[in-house]
Design brief:
- This protein is mostly helical.
- The protein is about 55% helix and about 10% strand.
- It folds into two domains: about 60 residues, no CATH class; about 70 residues.
- It is built from three helices and three strands, in the order H-E-E-E-H-H.
- It has a three-stranded antiparallel sheet with strand order 1-2-3, with no helix packed on it.
- Helix 2 runs antiparallel to helix 3.
- The structure holds zinc ion.
- The site of zinc ion (ZN) has 9 residues, from loops.
- InterPro entries: Znf_GRF.
């Protein structure tokens, strides 16, 4: 596609950026996969993924305003809520384990354990729902 210099300059601004890394190459956009910054876009060296060597340390977050539809804050909050629920589940699981240990001595605890397990499975359902929501939101951000 060799058209005019005008189209190539608009191509450049569309792909990102106009930013140049320390090697003098045009900066490339990546999507972060870390737990701390899930699906956040950043600019990095074009050589970033090629073996991890030979590239410079250029790195820059793309402004959060560029995330369309869902603000990044909402994703982070959802993630935090999931983490919180996971913590509750693991606490409840520990309690269940302890109660099961007592079971031999006290069969009446059985009812209590059943209740706890019902709570845990409800929490799991909530997490499944939140995770689905998160996946949707990520889809919106990545595709839209
Ligand atoms: Zn570079």
């Amino acid at each position: 596609m060799e058209l005019t210099s005008e189209s190539s300059s608009s191509m450049r601004s569309k792909s990102g950026v106009g930013q140049v890394c320390d090697c003098g190459l045009p900066a490339k956009m990546f999507i972060s996969k870390t737990a701390r910054n899930p699906n956040r876009r950043f600019l990095g060296c074009e050589l970033y993924k090629e073996g991890g060597n030979g590239h410079c340390k250029y790195f820059s977050w793309v402004d959060e305003e560029e995330v369309k539809g869902w603000p990044r804050r909402a994703l982070v909050e959802a993630q935090a809520e999931i983490n919180e629920k996971n913590k509750i589940i693991s606490q409840l699981s520990t309690t269940i384990m302890e109660l099961k240990g007592d079971l031999e001595r006290n069969q009446l605890q059985k009812k209590k354990i059943d209740d706890m397990e019902a709570i845990v499975s409800r929490q799991r359902l909530v997490i499944t729902g939140l995770t689905g929501l998160l996946v949707c939101a990520i889809g919106v951000i990545v595709l839209g």
